[in-house]
Task: structure prediction
Amino acid sequence: MKKLLLSFCLGTIAISALGAVTLTKEGVIRSKNARQEIKTIMNGPSAIRKKARAAENSDIIVTPPAGEKKMMLGSSTSYYIFYDAIEQDESYGVAYECIFCDDGSVYLKNPVSMLDWNTYIKGQTTNDGIEFTFPQPLYCAENETIDGEPIIFMADVLEYTEIEDPNNPGVVNMTFIPSTDNHTIKFVKEDDGSYMMEGENMLGITWNNLWQGYGETQLRLEPFNATPVVAPEGLKYDYSYILADELNGWGETVLRPIGIAYDGDDAYITNMASGMPGAVFKGTFDHEKNTLTIPSNQFMGEFFNHYIFMMTGTGYSYYDEFWDEEMISFDISDEPMVLNFDPEQNVFTPVIPEGMEYAYFIFNFGYATTFPCEYYTVDRIYSQGELTDCNPIAPVILGLNDISYMDPNYSYSFEFEIYGDNAEGQILRDDCIFYNLFINGELFTLTADDYPELKDAGYESLTDIPVFLNVGNDIFTSGNYHGVALPAREIETVGVRALYIDGDIRGESEIVTVDKDGNPVLGVENISDDSSVARTEYFDLFGRHIDRTAKGTVVIERKVFSNGSTQVKKVIR
Result:
């Protein structure tokens, strides 16, 4: 799998910026308007991180009455707990669903942007907007009880307060507490149909009358009716194309597999957004000039409770006195990206605007603020030719850890990495990569009985597991990394193999297996002494395949042996 620094995953990296965003030469995005933070519920209260089914509590609204459904794009100032510290961030591009009923009631789904619980709060229309009365039950945590009673998280009105730290005299901590005299939050309707939260109080999450670390202030909901770009049915993509990104701070080339298809003068590009396989954006190909023009601001669809747009961008290098280092500008452009095509080499190269040095594809939360979840610098897009081998190389097992003492519903946490290329070094399509798990030598099937949140992902059971699958915190994917919490049962060995499935084509890697103590049983560690090294490849620490490495850089070295086995280790080049 070829990932990048900012990649789609459950814990989305989001950058607050009202203007340009900057990158250091090391590839880290910085903004002077707000801190860069990782938004993830994994660092929240323990009960929030557990499996939950809202239907367990009849007062929690899972299915609202029939009514007029309106989609809204939300922006707000969000607060969340990150490693025991309260962080503030500007959220934008959040997908909100509102149901307006004939009796004047209104139901708002997932009112707190970072908690995708699929439950609703209930409000009532007024002469000038909508009013919600609190507290309202929002979430029931399974496997977490106090004195036999389930933990119910509430949506409530919170107000800012400052409390002196009892352990550090003179130090004042900020926090939020349930309001004592205000139990309503009102949204005022604006002329354009938007609704703006009135006042400075927070719409937040509490349990036992204590703030649980998540909430929204200054929430604005604007009407949203965009539809994703859709390619004509039956269009055939050429998936041999690779986007090469050389501006990543490592002095290396990051490679990303994509597909390109043509319908007359229309060109469609797919699979560039790693977390949205199958999503497309569109350009126009000039056959006389051999140029591909791709407009900015194209709606790609919804990902993890956010609306994602493909935006074009530009940048240039400069010295920043504030940070005292060389930096690279990074900003969304209203202008289209133009790519020159060389038909003899089958290569696209970007036309860089005057005064700029770099061109970007940016996958952005919303369409107005520079708020990227993933981006690529475009050095070139080339064809790697017809696929010669559909068998992926073997996964790499990172560890098998006993977690039964933490939760009796599970036995082990199984961690491994999957690299999406074949033994010839060709990069395989991300959306065609799957994996199988094996327990005690038997093929293992994920079921909704063991993983209730599997249904939320649209599955009752899975044997061939999509490499992008995230199921709560039980099945977690980020870049090449995969972590699976295995259900409680007697386990002697655990194995994994990578798959390539494209229609009737099916390729398989060898099965890599470890025993319950983490010792290899068969696979990547058992390399025959008489096997010669067929190829050595390098990956950066984010799991991205690289062409070359800068001196002194820590990288992942993978040796592919003539017998098909692989060996992986961390080295300094």
